[in-house]
Design brief:
This is Sensor protein FixL. GO terms for molecular function: ATP binding; phosphorelay response regulator activity; phosphorelay sensor kinase activity; protein kinase activator activity. Keywords: ATP-binding, Kinase, Membrane, Nucleotide-binding, Phosphoprotein, Transferase. The chain is built from twelve helices and 18 strands. It is an alpha+beta fold. A hairpin with a 5-residue loop joins strand 9 and strand 10. Strands 1, 2, 3, 4, 5 and 6 form a six-stranded antiparallel beta sheet that branches. A five-stranded antiparallel beta sheet has the order 8-7-11-10-9. The radius of gyration is 46 Å and the shape is elongated. It has four domains: 113 residues, PAS domain (Beta-Lactamase, 2-Layer Sandwich); 104 residues, PAS domain (Beta-Lactamase); 85 residues; 159 residues, Histidine kinase-like ATPase, C-terminal domain (Heat Shock Protein 90, 2-Layer Sandwich). 19% of the residues are buried.
């Protein structure tokens, strides 16, 4: 079996070159690799297969080989390139074997492999390693790696800052050094249990434990562990996040909720006191004043009768004020079921209950929507807005118009009147508790109604505002979500 036949039948690209650098044999695999036709490479100078910038170096390497012929890889440690017949370059790997003909001529057998794919894979691997190094070095969270015995191998800069050690200081030491008791013993036991049984208690899961800094301080951490298999080695990567600020915020929120709960309980007790301990004597005063005004009416002169009238009115005002305070305190604290409320029916009931004077015309737009809300709350909103319009009317013929518009995810309601109007500088003030614009002896008002309406609307994630021109009346607007609104859970229900 001749050498020529072996070369021709080889799947690797192979060629034989004489001492002058001429190709004396090239197999089909080589012709295909470099893009030449059959027998087109015979007699060709070997440098024709090498990019021109490497010609001088290549001639020197060929001469060195023939001076000391032996089997070896060509250009060890250097990147070699072949030149395709179409002019483009590609990476190659070349191994050389010396030959001698029967006439004593020296030749070399070269095997050429295309390493383009391998180089691309190596480049991709290098890029991936570079990205991983960048992530490892710049990650905000601490990253550390240990072997299956718990021995530390790597710490990223964030871990060094977090625990106060350099990577060199902890290398070769057990990771339990970064944990206080009892986590230290638990971790050692966990690793031993995992090695024996393969049962995973932490790997692939996040858990909250405690870390131990070099200065001895203990701090809360969130730990997640990933297992890796590197050949025959089993490694673990831990992602550690310092959650001290989060824990402190949770503690602050917990204390705040306790304070809110305590304040809510105090408000409940206050409401009870107001309802029972203040209204009882107030009812007595009212009954006594009514009795005096009735039984001793003939003994009072005009001034005395006026004083009795003022006394009775102020007792009733005080009673209404207490009722308003109780209503205001219950909003957002006392929860009722949210139900579909037909506003057409509800407005009819509200207007009927208020019984406007004969010279009032109340117009309610047809086909009002059905809203999901606590019936009592929406009734309070409309009751207060309409009653205010009636109460403060200064025209001989009062007009009130109630309407609704589709505002996307919300309904936008309006209550318009033709009363005296409100100055712009009072727009914010009137929604504050106990604020009224008219003298209480002229207009009976507690100053709670609009504050109550505002609190209810905002509790349902809506908003309330007004537009007005002096002498021409004003329009109160408010919005409510179409789908209802989730109400916050509170600590007290009456």
């Amino acid at each position: 079996m001749s050498l020529e036949w072996l070369v021709a039948s080889a799947t690797d690209a192979m060629l034989i070159v004489d001492q002058d650098g001429r190709i004396v044999l090239a197999n089909p695999a080589l012709e295909k690799l470099f893009g030449y036709g059959q027998d087109a490479m015979l007699g060709l100078a070997l440098e024709a297969l090498v990019p021109s910038r490497f010609h001088a170096a290549h001639v020197g390497q060929r001469d060195d080989f023939f001076d000391q012929p032996r089997s070896r890889a060509m250009g060890a440690g250097a990147e070699l390139y072949g030149l395709h017949h179409d002019g483009y370059e590609f990476g190659v790997e070349v191994s050389l074997s010396p030959l001698r003909t029967s006439q004593g001529r020296q030749m070399v057998l070269a095997t050429v492999r295309d390493v383009t794919e391998r180089k691309l894979a190596e480049q991709a691997l290098q890029e991936s390693e570079a990205r991983m190094r960048a992530i490892f070095e710049t990650a905000v969270d601490a990253i550390l790696t240990i072997d299956e015995r718990g021995v530390l191998e790597r710490l990223n800069p964030a871990a060094e800052r977090m625990f106060g050690y350099t990577e060199a200081e902890v290398a070769g030491r057990n990771v339990s050094m970064l944990m206080p008791q009892p986590h230290r013993d638990q971790h050692d036991g966990y690793l031993a249990h995992y090695r024996e049984t393969g049962e995973k208690r932490i790997i692939g899961k996040g858990r909250e434990v405690e870390g131990l800094r070099q200065d001895g301080s203990v701090f809360p951490i969130e730990l997640s562990v990933v297992e890796m298999q590197l050949g025959a080695r089993r490694m673990f990567t831990g992602m550690v996040r310092d959650i001290s600020e989060r824990k402190a915020a949770e503690d602050r929120n917990r204390r705040l909720m306790q304070e809110i709960s305590s304040a809510n309980e105090e408000l409940t007790n206050f409401a009870y006191v107001v309802s029972h301990d203040l209204k009882a004597p107030l009812r007595g005063i009212g009954s006594l004043a009514d009795w005096l005004a009735t039984d001793y009416a003939e003994q009072f002169n005009d001034e005395g009768k006026e004083h009795m009238r003022l006394l009775i009115n102020r007792v009733h005002r005080m009673s209404s004020l207490i009722d308003g305070i109780l209503q205001y305190s219950r909003v957002g604290r006392v929860r009722e079921a949210q139900l579909p409320v037909d506003l057409n029916r509800l407005l009819a009931d509200v207007v009927d209950l208020l019984a406007p004077p004969p010279d009032f015309r109340v117009t309610v737009a047809p086909a009002l929507p059905t809203v999901l809300i606590e019936p009592t709350r929406i009734q309070q909103v409309f009751h207060n807005l309409i009653s205010n319009a009636i109460k403060y009317m200064d025209k001989p013929e009062g007009e009130i118009e109630i309407a609704c518009a589709d505002d996307g995810s919300h309904w936008r309601f309006s209550v318009r009147d033709n009363g005296p109007g409100i100055e712009t500088r009072h727009f914010e003030r009137i929604f504050q508790l106990f604020q009224t614009l008219a003298s209480r002896d002229r207009v009976e008002s507690t100053g709670v109604g609009l504050a109550l309406a505002k609190k209810i609307v905002e509790m349902y994630h809506g908003r309330i505002w007004l537009e007005s021109q002096m002498g021409q009346g004003c329009t109160f607007w408010f919005t409510l979500p179409k789908s209802g609104a989730p109400l916050p859970r509170t600590g007290s229900i009456q």
